[in-house]
Design a protein that fits this description.
Elements lengths: L1 H31 L5 H18 L6 H36 L10 H24 L2 H15 L9 H18 L14 H20 L7 H37 L5 H30 L5
Helix pairs in contact: 1-2, 1-5, 2-3, 2-7, 3-4, 3-5, 6-7, 7-8, 8-9
């Protein structure tokens, strides 16, 4: 029974890797055409691949996946530059559209929306160029080789890997002050909160990868996804606030009115605080699903 479960787990992980590899490869042309959300979806597929290969090193031995994961990190970084600019442009456009016209002072829309759209176009062109490089083709070939294997060679325990992913999230939550007494000032340092998000994402992807062999894992994955979403809101607000402060400095240096930047910065700070508070409940929900691992 033990060996049968291990085979089923290994097959589930391999099927997950094959699925995300096929999706990542198929999205390359959509990125080249700059189709809506294509950059984001390709980035997600590459991140899922990297995460699943890393979490299930008991199934895919690290010596076979470490170089591939390194290249997936590189690809994700390239796609991330375009995605981040896209998110900022859309976020600032929505924020400005929600304000009464009399509160929009100076060329704010140009600095916050047009500038980031321009940066997106530059980053997108870089990503398209990368997709035509030998380095990307080598990555695709290496992933194809992994997926062509009839069965991964690892003999380890998927259950242990899942529990390890959970423990990493739990530790990150403690480090960020999302368990126990509230951190001084009511908010944990943003970099520690972001680390919790990354661990939640890894646990989510790990759970989703093995639902075919471990149906209860979907409960853990769902709770981790909810936590990831809340922490994503926190991260977006934190990053937006940083960009707003920098834009305000540039506007002040140019002699422009900075009232609107202050208004938006305060709103982003409030959003970050609210989502940070909700993260405690999200982490608690994940911990309640520990028994399903």
């Amino acid at each position: 029974m033990g060996n049968a479960r291990k085979r089923a787990d290994a097959d589930a992980v391999l099927d997950s890797v094959r699925h995300h590899y096929a999706r990542m490869s198929a999205l390359a042309d959509a990125v080249r055409r700059d189709e809506p959300d294509a950059v984001h979806q390709m980035r997600v597929a590459s991140r899922r691949l990297r995460s699943v290969l890393g979490t299930y090193d008991s199934v895919f031995p690290p010596e076979t996946t470490t170089p591939v994961r390194s290249e997936l990190r590189w690809l994700g970084t390239v796609l991330g530059r375009a995605r981040d600019e896209e998110v900022l442009a859309d976020r600032f456009r929505s924020a400005l559209d929600a304000q009464p016209p009399e509160l929009i002072r100076g060329p704010v829309r140009h600095r916050l929306v047009d500038a980031h759209r321009g940066d997106y176009r530059a980053a997108h062109a870089e990503a398209v160029a990368v997709l035509d490089e030998p380095r990307y083709r080598d990555l695709v070939a290496a992933l194809g080789g992994l997926c062509a294997e009839p069965r991964p060679s690892g003999q380890g325990s998927v259950a242990k890997s899942l529990r390890k992913a959970y423990r990493r999230l739990d530790k990150a939550g403690r480090d960020a002050g999302l368990r126990g007494p509230t951190a001084p000032g009511g908010q944990a340092p943003p970099e520690l909160v972001h680390a919790v998000r990354k661990r939640a994402k890894a646990l989510r992807y790990a759970g989703e990868a093995v639902t075919a062999s471990r149906p209860k894992a979907v409960r853990v994955a769902s709770a981790a996804e909810n936590l990831q979403t809340v922490l994503g809101e926190h991260q977006d607000a934190t990053v937006a606030r940083q960009h707003l402060l920098a834009a305000a400095d540039r506007a002040r240096g140019a002699g422009e009115d900075t009232f609107t930047y202050g208004l938006l910065t305060a709103a982003e700070a409030a959003d970050a605080q609210q989502s940070g508070a909700r993260a405690r409940d999200g982490l608690r929900a994940v911990r309640k699903r520990k028994r399903d691992l």
